Amino acid sequence: MTQPSSNAGRVRAGRAPSTPRRHVSTTLSLYLARHMLNSVGLVLAVVMGLVLVVDLIELLRRAAGDDVPVTTLIGMAILKNPFQLQKIAPFAVLIGGMITFSRLTRTNELVVARAAGVSVWQFMAPPVGVALLLGAFLVAIFNPLAAMMTSRYESLDARYIGGHSSLLSVGPGGLWLRERLDGAPVVIHATRMAAAGTDLGNVTIFRYGQDETFRDRIDAARATLGNQVWHIENAIVSAPDQVPERVDSLEQATQMTREQILDSFANPETMSFWALPGFIAQLRDAGFSALQHRLYWHSVLALPLLMMAMVIISATFGLRFTRRGGAGITIAGGVFTGFLLYFLTGVVYALGQSGGLPVVLAAWTPAGVAALFGIATLLHLEDG
User: Fold this and answer.
1) DSSP symbol at 140
2) What confidence tier does 167 reach under pLDDT thresholds 50, 70, 90?
3) Whole-angstrom Cα distance, residue 137 to residue 300?
4) 8-state DSSP, 116
5) Alpha-carbon span 147 to 275, nearest angstrom
6) How open is the CA angle 265-270-273, to the nearest 5 degrees?
7) Dihedrals φ, ψ of 256, to 5°?
8) Among 4, 204, 309, 324, which has the highest number of CB atoms less than 10 A from its own CB?
9) C-beta atoms surrounding 318 within 10 Å
10) Distance CA 352, CA 346 (A)
11) What distance, in Å, lies between the first and last C-alpha atoms of the chain?
12) Bridge partners (DSSP) listed for residue 201
């Protein structure tokens, strides 16, 4: 009789055989991704429906006393909805991830997968991939559509309800300011600006009558903003059928203030992600600070990372439903974490807008901190 090999079937004392790690099959990956996508879609649909109703109620309140058709207000609420979706999407991923992981844990599907040698990091890969692809879709394709609809919403808001209307536009040829004085349009063009909007260089002012017929044109090397007046130096005044006249100094009345000029920038939310870099360059060439637009651009760029971080955080709560008990406390912990992250994001963005933090740091810190927090917590719970 042959003796069994000394190595065959031998298990070291006090050490159980380890379960081999297995790769997640394509079928299981698609199954997990489908569950994640369905949960996130359901949360987004419910939340966006509620947001639509709230926005419509707010528009009805603001339009009270004005003769604005209800259909117009409904259309405005719908136009505003895509921008709200971009802000809510990361937190919808957080709630959707908690729903997905808790459901699969309650039905013991993840327990079976773990017993078969699939690690928590492996079965998290498909939901993380869904979040990454969803974030990339929002940035590359959905954001331009949302920006266009937000721009249309703001123009309707200014037309029907008296919302903010931009006085300033910036283009490759410089910047343009426009206003009406006693019903007569005045258009100001300048190639550069300094002193936060109060000092214009290479200025051309077009003045029109109340019937919008051209009256005259003023060309000057410089114009500075005073108290409801532009102080213009070394100006040349040209009028139709008249010889141009040189004037050492003159004053042009205005209702603009420094704050109005600074607030008249195109809202970054109304601009496509792809168009923002060029617009930022134009702002810099015109002498403006593009800090707000740069911060918004980087925050949109960081959206896929933030959504991936939300999936990891959701796993730290969703996987504990049945194994640790206290489902209500776990749900409350996840929701509280989401609100805390939202609050901290607002604080960091405020610091970035005020110049207290570099733009890149302010935009990427929330996503980076959320990802590190989720990974560290999951390592502690699963492998610690």
Assistant:
1) I
2) low
3) 11
4) T
5) 10
6) 110
7) -75, 150
8) 309
9) 27
10) 10
11) 48
12) 192, 222
pLDDT-derived band at 71 (thresholds 50, 70, 90) equals very high
Which residue is listed with tokens 């070291």?
12
Q: State how far the Cα of 182 lies from the Cα of 41, in Å rounded to an integer.
A: 52
Give which of 287, 258, 232 is closest to 167, Cα–Cα. Answer: 258
Any idea how long the chain is? 384
Write phi, then psi, for 93 (nearest 5 degrees). -65, -40
Q: Is the dihedral of CA 48, 52, 55, 61 positive or negative?
A: negative
Residue pLDDT, tens place only, 328-342: 676 777 778 888 888
Which of 244, 196, 250 lies closest to 223 in space, CA to CA? Answer: 250
Cβ pair 41, 99 in contact under 8 A = no
Which strands form 214-225's sheet, in the order they lie side by side?
168-171, 174-181, 184-194, 199-208, 214-225, 229-238, 245-253
- The H helix count followed by the E strand count for the chain is 12, 7
Q: Rounded CA gap, 332 and 324, in Å? A: 15
**Bridging pattern class, strands 184-194 and 229-238:** unpaired
β-bridge pairing 229-238 and 245-253: antiparallel
CA-CA-CA-CA torsion for 221, 225, 228, 234, nearest 10 degrees? -20
* pLDDT single digits (tens) 201-214: 889 999 998 888 89
If residue 134 lies in a helix (H) or strand (E), which one and from where to where?
A: helix 120-137
Q: How large is the angle between the packed helices 276-286 and 291-301, nearest 10 degrees?
A: 160
Q: How many whole angstroms separate alpha carbon 209 and alpha carbon 222? A: 24
Contact 20, 117 (CB under 8 A): yes
Count of alpha carbons within 13 angstroms of residue 97, beta-carbon side: 32
Identity at 191, one-letter amino acid code = T
From 365, 363, 305, 374, select the one nearest 337 (Cα to Cα). Answer: 374
Q: Which residues pair with 250 in a beta bridge?
A: 232
Bridge partners of residue 205, in order along the sequence: 188, 218
Query: Which neighbouring-strand residues pair with 216?
Result: 207
Cα torsion at 330, 336, 339, 343 (round to 10°)? -140
Residue with tokens 């206003």: 179
